[in-house]
């Protein structure tokens, strides 16, 4: 699942449930730039990718030993807890092993914002389950008037909380700063619903927010002087 949004035009593109596109974010970009649609899924999205000349790979290309092992572990733990999959019954092991989204939020020198998100989705998802990552407004949102946001976390809650757009809306309609808006959504609204995760975001002035309510979130920022800051755990 992947999505991208251009904060200047509010144009957006997304793909869900594709299995053989080498770089799904490139396909999301193609959907945005070269189709009249926003979200394409499954076989049709793959056909569109072929037409646009994107690189196609065998799904085995995406295999890694580490992720395979974590899938086996999650399956085992879920079997033990089967029939009891409420927020309270997911132990922290299952939750922490399930996330692995890559997101990006950027501001260019002309004041244009953009955000992109790409993921394999939550580990052990079934039934063509689609998370927040390809949902514009939930997993990704960008608007030059406010901010650019990319989300990671328990997608069902991020869809229901319309997380990325909510942060933008709190800035636009309530006058909150990016940091205040991000904290409101990630530390209050989402936990209150029983969900967890985080966001990375940048506003139209270049202020950055990287808010999460999980134990850690792999993250980094780079400013216009190319100064890099990296974090995993505490803020
Ligand atoms: N948000 C993603 C999903 O629900 C998971 C993640 O962030 O890793 O599919």
Give a concise summary.
With 235 residues, this protein is of the alpha+beta class. It has seven helices and eleven strands.
Explain this structure.
This protein has 235 residues and is an alpha+beta fold. It has a domain at 64-94. It contains 7 helices and 11 strands. A hairpin with a 4-residue loop joins strand 8 (197-203) and strand 9 (208-212). Helix 3 packs antiparallel against helix 4 (92-98) and helix 6 packs across helix 7 (178-193). It is globular and about 45 Å long. The two termini are 28 Å apart. 40% of the residues are buried.
Low-confidence stretches: none
Largest sheet: 5 strands, mixed
What is the N-to-C succession of helices and strands?
EEHEHHHEEEEHHHEEEE
The residue fraction in helices comes out at: 25-40%
Q: Find the count of extended strands (DSSP E, 2+ residues).
A: 11
Cα separation of the termini? 28 Å
In terms of DSSP E residues, the strand content is: 15-25%
The tally of helices reads: 7
Describe the secondary-structure layout.
Blueprint: E1 2-6, E2 11-16, H1 24-34, E3 39-41, H2 42-51, H3 65-80, H4 92-98, E4 102-107, E5 113-118, E6 140-142, E7 147-153, H5 155-160, H6 163-174, H7 178-193, E8 197-203, E9 208-212, E10 219-222, E11 228-231
Parallel strand pairs: 2-3
Antiparallel strand pairs: 1-2, 1-5, 4-5, 6-7, 7-8, 8-9, 10-11
Helix pairs in contact: 3-4, 6-7
The structure holds aspartic acid.
């Amino acid at each position: 699942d992947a999505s991208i949004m251009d904060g200047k035009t509010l144009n957006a593109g997304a793909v869900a449930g594709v299995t053989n596109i080498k770089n799904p974010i490139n396909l999301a970009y193609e959907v945005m730039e070269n189709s009249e649609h926003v979200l394409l899924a499954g076989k049709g999205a793959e056909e569109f990718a072929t037409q646009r000349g994107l690189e196609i790979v065998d799904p085995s290309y995406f295999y890694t030993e580490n992720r395979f092992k974590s899938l086996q572990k999650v399956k085992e733990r879920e079997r033990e807890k089967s029939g009891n999959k409420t927020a309270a019954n997911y132990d922290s092991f299952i939750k922490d092993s399930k996330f692995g989204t890559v997101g990006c939020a950027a501001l260019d020198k002309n004041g244009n914002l953009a955000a992109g998100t790409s993921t394999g989705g939550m580990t052990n998802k079934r039934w063509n389950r689609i998370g927040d990552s390809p949902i514009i407004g939930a997993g990704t949102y960008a608007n030059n008037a406010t901010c650019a946001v990319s989300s990671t976390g328990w997608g069902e809650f991020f869809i229901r909380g319309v997380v990325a757009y909510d942060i933008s809306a709190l800035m636009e309609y309530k006058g909150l700063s990016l940091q205040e808006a991000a904290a409101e959504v990630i530390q209050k609204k989402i936990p209150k619903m029983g969900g967890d995760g985080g966001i990375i975001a940048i506003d139209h002035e270049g202020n950055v927010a990287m808010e999460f309510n999980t134990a850690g979130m792999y993250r980094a920022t780079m400013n216009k002087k190319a100064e890099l800051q990296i974090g995993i755990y505490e803020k």
